[in-house]
Write a structure and sequence with these properties.
alpha+beta; elongated
Length: 297
């Protein structure tokens, strides 16, 4: 079905937008237009808002509909004041809803002590792979993809866009990440650290896998040592986490443990390790932090 010139002209004037974004706008526009008797530009702003509310199950969807209507009307220099005020009201509802969701989430989350005890138990039980996974996940606030890594003992083996855990002769470990979600924004990451327990766990795990001479040693691998596929990573990692928690909930526990502005340095370290804007940590992962414009910069 051919789209009305109202949207086609807007799209032609905004070719800088990605194809994915424009497809989303097109779908949103169609939802709006199907419920109005006139074009968005000629429709009454109040009618647009009422229609957006009637077809939306969540305030987020309602805000998206209003945003697209606002952008298209601005393109044609049509008034948008009522739409903008409605959008601001919806944003308040979104924030209120998020606060309720976070409150329930906080009640269900374990403490940092729980996560540390779980990791310690994995070490005591000799679950070396599980211990390494949880140590890296907790210490460096990683995403699942970051743990798809090869264990190596020679820096010369660290080639290409892969992740590595390098065992150095002096006992220092290098956690090298070249394949993670936000690499384009933050570049390659390397964390140097010393840990007697991690060193022992890595050595024991490599031995379990047949030793250094048997070939590539992957942290996430099948019973015959083959690297697991990307579609299996999440399930594989959750089998080793506390109560099968997701990596995002691990990060939420870490971030939410900071309960004052005095802990901002800790949040900045998490931000740097994970490759995530500080404002995103506060808005998407902290369950109770009093976010202000100053804190989110």
């Amino acid at each position: 079905m051919e789209l009305p010139a109202e949207f086609s002209d807007y799209a032609a004037a905004n070719k800088h937008l990605s194809r994915k974004t424009m497809v989303t706008y097109q779908h949103t526009y169609k939802r709006l237009r199907d419920g109005l008797s006139k074009s968005l530009v000629k429709s009454n702003q109040k009618d647009i808002v009422q229609h957006a509310e009637s077809v939306s199950k969540t305030p987020n969807t309602e805000a998206q509909l209003i945003n697209v209507a606002t952008m298209i009307r601005r393109h044609y220099d049509a008034p948008t004041g009522y739409l903008e005020r409605a959008r601001d009201r919806v944003k308040i509802r979104i924030d209120d809803r998020k606060a309720v969701v976070n409150s329930k989430k906080l009640d269900d989350l374990p403490s940092i002590v729980d996560l540390k005890k779980h990791t310690a138990k994995l070490y005591t039980d000799g679950d070396w792979r599980g211990f390494i996974i949880n140590h890296l996940l907790f210490t460096f606030s990683t995403r699942n993809k970051d743990l798809d890594l090869r264990i190596i003992k020679d820096k010369k083996e660290a080639v290409g866009d892969f992740n590595y855990l390098l065992m150095r002769p002096a006992g220092t470990l290098s956690y090298i990440r070249r394949d993670y979600k936000t690499k384009k924004q933050y570049g390659n990451k390397t964390n140097e650290f010393k840990s007697v327990k991690v060193k022992r766990a890595v050595e024991a795990y490599v031995e379990e896998q047949g030793g250094w001479d048997q070939g590539d040693v992957w942290l996430l691998s099948t019973s015959d040592g083959k690297r697991i596929g990307p579609d299996s990573i999440q399930k594989f990692i959750r089998a080793k986490t506390y109560n099968n928690m997701s990596e995002s909930d691990y990060n939420r526990v870490r971030v939410s443990a900071v309960d004052s502005v005095a802990g901002m340095a800790a949040l900045k370290r998490i931000s740097a390790n994970r490759g995530t804007e500080l404002s995103t940590l506060l808005q998407s992962y902290h369950t109770s932090f009093p976010v202000s414009e100053g804190a989110s910069k």
